[in-house]
């Protein structure tokens, strides 16, 4: 029987009602009492990593989860992390870079309603996650939610209330789970190396600028004083505007002269960016050699550059690592 380690981090799944609203107070050990049937197919032990609303998740929490998994990696066959849904996609992506090529499954799950409620998705999601973590064909970091298994770098929360909150963006689901059955769409564990690569450094000095019409480019100047990298969420397939009241060309030139990283992505959820299509994107990318996220999710782009900048500050190494495919995060590169 497979041995699974459950890590509790808080979130809605662990919440109870208080005078101030839902608050995570249920421990990982208590959560297991709601899925007694899981004992039929796996042995489970639990650790409470922390117990917070996922709105409060920061990079140091990702490092804590990674450290716990690393310390216990040889003792267990799989790992399940219960987590709040609001930043779950960021955590799943971050763990994909901090724990690479894991032959053992690392599963992140949660719920839209607390596990102690009568009508909740929590018990199904947790049972599915434990079942997937105990599956001998499962590997690497994945989100399990509403019967879907989503690569850790491809998940995005697209609904705030519905049980089918998460989608796999620009990539198919790894598998679906229906009751006791797991149907794999991508079954490639034989390609995995024998042991994972763990990392313990992140650089959280990454900013995000979401463009809106008429936004002043001086915001990029302001951010250059405070961040080592910026991700610019542009319109459509990607580009930078030329406004009378703001010079994005000059602002980007300043970023690159300081040796800092600029990454272009799109505000559009599906199908990715392609800055070579329009003049507003092609010229500025060619002149400054900007990085482009292409079909990556925003969550993956953010956490990937945090991981990269934790390893190196050399531009050529940053570029090579950013375009290296890790846990299915980027497939299309022009």
TrEMBL record:
PANTHER family: 60 KDA LYSOPHOSPHOLIPASE, L-ASPARAGINASE. SUPFAM superfamilies: Glutaminase/Asparaginase. It is an enzyme of class 3 (hydrolase). Belongs to the asparaginase 1 family. Substrate binds at residues 54, 85-86. PROSITE patterns: ASN_GLN_ASE_1 (PS00144), ASN_GLN_ASE_2 (PS00917), ASN_GLN_ASE_3 (PS51732), PROKAR_LIPOPROTEIN (PS51257). Keywords: Hydrolase. Pfam families: Asparaginase (PF00710), Asparaginase_C (PF17763). Residues 3-186 form the L-asparaginase N-terminal domain. The active site is at residues 12, 85. SMART domains: Asparaginase (SM00870). It comes from Candidatus Enterocloster excrementipullorum. Residues 205-322 form the Asparaginase/glutaminase C-terminal domain. It catalyses: L-asparagine + H2O = L-aspartate + NH4(+). The keyword Metal-binding does not apply. Its EC number is 3.5.1.1. This is asparaginase. GO terms for molecular function: asparaginase activity. The keyword Hydrolase applies. GO terms for biological process: amino acid metabolic process.
């Amino acid at each position: 029987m497979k041995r699974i380690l459950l890590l509790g981090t808080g979130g809605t799944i662990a919440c109870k009602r208080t005078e101030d609203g839902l608050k995570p107070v249920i421990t990982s050990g208590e959560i297991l009492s709601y899925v007694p049937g899981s004992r039929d197919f796996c042995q489970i032990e639990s650790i409470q990593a922390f117990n917070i609303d996922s709105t409060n998740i920061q990079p140091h929490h990702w490092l804590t989860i990674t450290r716990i998994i690393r310390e216990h990696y040889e003792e267990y066959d799989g790992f399940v992390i219960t987590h709040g849904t609001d930043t779950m996609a960021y955590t799943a992506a971050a763990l994909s870079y901090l724990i690479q090529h894991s032959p053992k499954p690392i599963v992140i799950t949660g719920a839209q309603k607390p596990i102690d409620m009568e009508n909740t998705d929590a018990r199904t999601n947790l049972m599915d996650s434990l079942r997937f973590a105990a599956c001998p064909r499962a590997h690497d970091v994945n989100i399990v939610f509403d019967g879907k298994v989503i690569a850790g770098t491809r998940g995005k929360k697209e609904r705030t209330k519905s049980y089918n909150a998460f989608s796999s963006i620009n990539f198919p689901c790894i598998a679906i789970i229906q009751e006791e059955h797991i149907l794999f769409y991508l079954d490639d564990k034989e390609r995995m190396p024998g042991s994972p690569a763990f990392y313990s450094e992140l650089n959280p000095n990454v900013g995000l600028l979401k463009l809106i019409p008429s936004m002043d480019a001086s915001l990029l100047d302001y951010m250059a004083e405070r961040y080592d990298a910026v991700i610019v969420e542009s319109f459509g397939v990607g580009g930078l505007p030329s406004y009378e009241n703001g010079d994005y060309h000059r602002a980007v030139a300043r970023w690159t002269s300081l040796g800092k990283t600029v990454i272009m992505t799109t505000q559009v959820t599906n199908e990715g960016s392609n800055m070579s299509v329009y003049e507003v994107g092609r010229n500025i990318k060619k002149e400054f050699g900007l990085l482009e996220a292409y079909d990556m999710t925003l969550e993956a782009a953010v956490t990937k550059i945090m991981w990269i900048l934790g390893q190196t500050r050399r531009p050529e190494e940053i570029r090579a690592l950013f375009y290296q495919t890790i846990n299915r995060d980027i497939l299309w590169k022009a």
